[in-house]
């Protein structure tokens, strides 16, 4: 029974993560505050281009007042929604540099308006 509970939990998490797909994904907890370097954008673009054409990568660091894993927000805008879906399925909960990456869809209209701070539905 314990095993089925865990797999059900994982299935529910995947379902929740795939809710409201968008061409923009948000990666959290890839790096901590102050760890953003000149290579991060290029590395993220290269990694994500495995899933499809990347239009834009935006790295947004929140100066203070949030948890360490929320401080650096990496947005990846894909040309096609199918690419974004593949990226979220593959990257969510992936281990990167000793951290567990959190990946989710982000509303295109908020991204285009540069509303990059945490949204109520994320927390």
Characterize the structure shown:
With 123 residues, the chain is α+β, with helices and mostly antiparallel strands. Strands 2-3-1-6 form a four-stranded antiparallel sheet. Strands 4-5 form a two-stranded antiparallel ribbon. The protein has helices at 2-17, 40-48, 81-91, 108-112; strands at 24-28, 54-61, 72-78, 95-96, 99-100, 102-106. 33% of the residues lie in helices and 24% in strands. The chain contains four helices and six strands, in the order H-E-H-E-E-H-E-E-E-H.
Descriptive key words:
123 residues, alpha+beta, four-stranded antiparallel sheet, two-stranded antiparallel ribbon, 4 helices, 6 strands, globular
Quick overview:
Helices cover 33% and strands 24% of the residues.
Describe the secondary structure blueprint for this structure.
Layout lengths: L1 H16 L6 E5 L11 H9 L5 E8 L10 E7 L2 H11 L3 E2 L2 E2 L1 E5 L1 H5 L11
